[in-house]
Amino acid sequence: MTERKFSVLAELANDLASPKVLPALFTGAINGTLLVLISVSFAAMIFSGDMAGFATRGAGLTLFGTGVMGVAVLLLSGIKCNVAITQDAPTATLVAATPIAATLLQHSGEAAFMTLTAILFLSSLVTGIAYLLIGRYQLANLFRFVPFPVVGGFLAGSGCLLIHGGIGVICGLTPTLGNLHLFLSPEMLWKGVPGLVFALLLFILMQRYPHYLFLPMALVAGVAGYYSAFALSGRPLEAFRKSGLLISGVPDGGLWPVFSFDSLAAIHWELVFRHTPLALTVALISTLGMLLNTSGIEVAAAEDIDLNREFKTLGAANLVAGLGGSLPGYSALSLTMLGVKTGAVTRLCGVVSTTMVCSVLFIGGWLLTWFPTPLLGSLLVLLGLFFFWDWLVLTVTKMPFLDYLLILFITLTIVWKGFLPGVAVGMAASLMIFVFRFSRVSPIHAVFDLRQRHSRKQRSVPDRHLLAMEGESALGFELTGYLFFGSASAFVEQVRGRLADPVRLLFLDFRRVTGFDISADNNFQRLLQITAKAGIHTFLSHCPPALEQSLCRQGEGLLAWPAKDLESALERGGRTAAGQSPRASRPGWRRPAQRPFRCRRRRNDAAPGAAGMVRIAGGKGLRLWPDPLLRPG
Questions:
Q1: Crossing angle of helices 276-301/419-439, nearest 10°?
Q2: Can you say whether residue 428 is alpha, beta or left, with left for phi > 0 and alpha for psi between -120 and 50 degrees?
Q3: Helix, strand, or coil here: 108?
Q4: Beta bridge partners of residue 84, listed in sequence order
Q5: Please, are residues 482 and 515 in contact by the beta-carbon 8 Å criterion?
Q6: Residue 401, number of CB atoms within 10 A of its CB
Q7: Are residues 372 and 195 in contact, defined by beta-carbon separation less than 8 angstroms?
Q8: By C-alpha distance, which of 309, 324, 315, 383 is closest to 358?
Q9: How far apart are alpha carbons 284 and 55 in whole angstroms?
Q10: Which DSSP letter does residue 449 get?
């Protein structure tokens, strides 16, 4: 840990002497402002209704958690500009605990507040333990099987929601289908049009001139423009603050400590432990959110991220944050990508943003109230436009049509129903597309008959002539890959179509098969039933033991024989084609009864007078051959 701290300090020292300083300061300041506002809004969501009187103390809890996570990712994360925060998905789930805690208000307000705080602690504790277990046992690698179109759809959907949320911040009203007419009023146009135009111009110019100083200069110009407009209007600044053009709602004084050790006695622990299922649900939702956000950062930033390291870092952060009564949290996709897009890929962003959060927590946030609110919304819209452009516009020509349709479908589902339904639908659709595509991959490595391929056994001239004549009545397949319900079913139908020709023998070689599922087992049993009804002898070489045992249990009455290898199968098939018995005890999927082992004695020079005695050469006196067909020569 000490070495890690010194390496971070050395990295920060190098960045301070680089051109990253200016964009890092501006990006960190923007992120810090957003972190404070988001944390305060989450506290208002949890401490609402009858508990609204505790919203200010609740803001201290969420700001403490955000500050702890900021320090953790600053020191331990592998993503240099990583930003972590208490998140909305766990918050929306934990809102269900508020009415239950409010029932304690009739006894004691402190008991209600501390009990709800303990429920938040339990949720963060369970989430932190889950993160640490995932990171400790390297389970995060299992989550890398998320299909690329699902991640692309998640990023595109995030972009659309960022644009939607940014418009709500600019105008002070979240757009819905029912209130669209309100956005045409003069007041809304006065508040919304400058912010949207600012975001659109920034997006166009940053696409053309991607310099790291462009965004800081644009923000300075934007702040100057708003205050110039305020001055020209002749109205006092408080009037603009009341109308939502300046930030409000930030605590003026310090918020920590929120509670004392004496307050712990007011907690109703039986009520807390009744919310254990809720805490487990929050941990599951937080794990999915952590996975999606970190994977999205990895793809969007084109970086190779150690997911296990990130889980361990934020697992420890959630444990510490939970001790202060905070909500669970994880990496923020949008705020992290703001550093990437502005060229501020440095831990200086985290230093600035975390310092601002801690300043508001311990001192107060009066300085933030001078920043124009529409500019914050403009930055959210700008980031949403980047996501939208990268994943819904540029991918049209870069991705297969079906994959692009999947990204578009996931995006629309996220906009309509939210992240979790969108990702779930995307995973299901990806699985269906995978099955469809993989089932079109032929499991056939090679096709042959007895004219093209036959055993090495020496045969008489009449038998060789007969094999040449009857060889075309044999059909052989060398199979390859993994056999599952899609490919096995398609193969059975293909063989069924070939059986329309006069086929007497069928060879199936499984040497290159890597595995199969139960549906493939059923399909091969169906194939053997078809060939048995047609009087076709089937020979299976290198048959997987599990498949062979299954057919032994279920396949009585089948004209099929297993063989050790393809050579043995070809020899048996050649004997059958020549009019001889395939050497089976009776038709049906049963291994032929083992006849006594044929043995060949090897005599070496025996001593005089030792007639009738066999001397064992090399320690072995018998060479056992379970079948004469396998004996060399």
A1: 60
A2: alpha
A3: coil
A4: 331
A5: yes
A6: 8
A7: no
A8: 324
A9: 26
A10: -
Q: Are strands 598-601 and 474-483 parallel, antiparallel or unpaired?
A: unpaired
Q: What is the mean pLDDT of residues 490-501?
A: 82
Distance CA 381, CA 201 (A): 11
Q: Which contacts (CB < 8 Å, 24+ apart) does range 415-418 have?
A: 415/157, 415/160, 415/161, 415/164
**What local confidence, expressed as pLDDT, does residue 618 receive?**
37
Phi, psi dihedrals of residue 537, rounded to the nearest 5°? -80, 130
Helices (H), 245-396: 269-273, 276-301, 307-323, 333-341, 348-362, 373-388
**DSSP letter string over 412-423?**
HHHHHH-HHHHH
- Strands (E) in 289-379, as ranges, are 329-331
* Tokens read off for 46: 């949890």
Amino acid identity for residue 209 in this structure: Y
DSSP run (H or E) holding 540? strand 537-541
H or E element in which residue 537 lies: strand 537-541
- 27: tokens are 């990006």
Exposure letters 486-498 (e unless 16+ CB within 10 A, then b): bbbbbbbeebeee
419's tokens: 């992240």
- pLDDT tens column, 24-78: 888 898 888 889 888 887 887 788 777 777 878 888 899 999 999 999 999 998 8
Question: What's the farthest any 2 CA atoms get from each other in the chain?
Answer: 133
Euclidean distance between CA atoms 169 and 191, whole angstroms: 10
CB 218 within 8 A of CB 195: no
- Pair of tokens at residue 337: 């990508």
> What is the dihedral sign for C-alpha 270, 273, 274, 278?
positive
What is residue 556's DSSP assignment?
Answer: T
Considering the entire predicted model, what is its pTM? 0.66
What does DSSP assign to residue 389?
A: I
End-to-end CA distance of the chain, in Å?
70
Number of H helices, E strands in the chain: 23, 9
Closest CA to 56 of 35, 38, 41: 41
Length of the chain (residues): 633
The C-alpha atoms of residue 267 and residue 118 are separated, in whole angstroms, by 7
Question: Whole-number mean pLDDT of the chain?
Answer: 79
* Residue the block writes with tokens 């690698």: 141
Check: CB of residue 530 under 8 Å from CB of residue 498: no
What angle in degrees, to the nearest 10, is found between the helix axes of 186-208 and 148-171?
A: 140
